[in-house]
Design brief:
eight-stranded antiparallel beta barrel; alpha+beta; 2 helices; 197 residues; 50% strand; 10 strands
């Protein structure tokens, strides 16, 4: 047995347990205090006139666009499909499921999105993908989002930026998305529309 190490239940173990007890107690106290302060702040914010609004609204609609893949992604795609000559520009068609969550008094809105697409149909391909995003949208329509992107090649991280143009009761979102994986970067441009209250 190495020097200075006692078996479980021995003197060293007892001393270590006794020394850890105050530290654990302080950690629990700090955690409880932080939770109490957070709860108090939340209640105080809810009682002010400037509290955020919780008004979930579904803003879903069709999406069309295109994706450009790099040479590494192109080669991997050709390898997986057993087919040569795949063009690096792929069309995309699908649907975006969007849920608007909180809206602050300044118009900043939090939202979640699920974007389901099928790409490459113009090349007789069927390449499904899905992206789950969390994001922010300003009152003027500027938006940013980030989240995982899943394709047949694996999982990557996607980041999006765009703007929503409003016309009467219709929104026209225009987004650029970049997905980064072990095979490189894919860039997509998507447009679509949805109805709003």
């Amino acid at each position: 047995m190495p020097v200075g190490v006692a078996p479980s239940g021995g003197p060293a173990s007892t001393e270590r347990t006794q020394s850890e007890t105050p530290a654990m107690t302080n950690t629990l106290r700090c955690t409880a205090l932080a939770l109490a302060l957070a709860f108090t702040a939340t209640r105080a914010a809810a009682q002010t006139d400037e509290a955020p609004r919780y008004d979930p609204i579904s803003l879903s609609g069709p999406r069309v666009g295109a994706t450009v893949i790099n040479q590494t992604s192109q080669a991997e795609l050709e390898k997986r499909l057993g087919r040569d000559g795949i063009h690096p520009l792929l069309t995309q068609m699908g649907w975006q499921f969007e849920q608007r969550l909180y809206t602050t008094p300044t118009g900043l809105t939090t939202l979640t999105e699920l974007v389901v697409l099928v790409g490459g149909m113009e090349q007789s391909l069927l390449l499904p993908s899905a992206s789950g995003l969390i994001g922010l949208r300003t009152r003027s329509g500027l938006e940013l989002g980030i989240g995982p992107n899943v394709t047949a090649a694996g999982v990557s991280l996607a980041a999006t930026a765009g703007v929503t143009v409003r016309s009467n009761a219709i929104n026209f979102p225009i987004n650029v998305a970049i997905a980064s994986s072990q095979y490189g970067v894919r860039t997509s441009l998507l447009v679509g529309f949805n109805l709003r209250d």
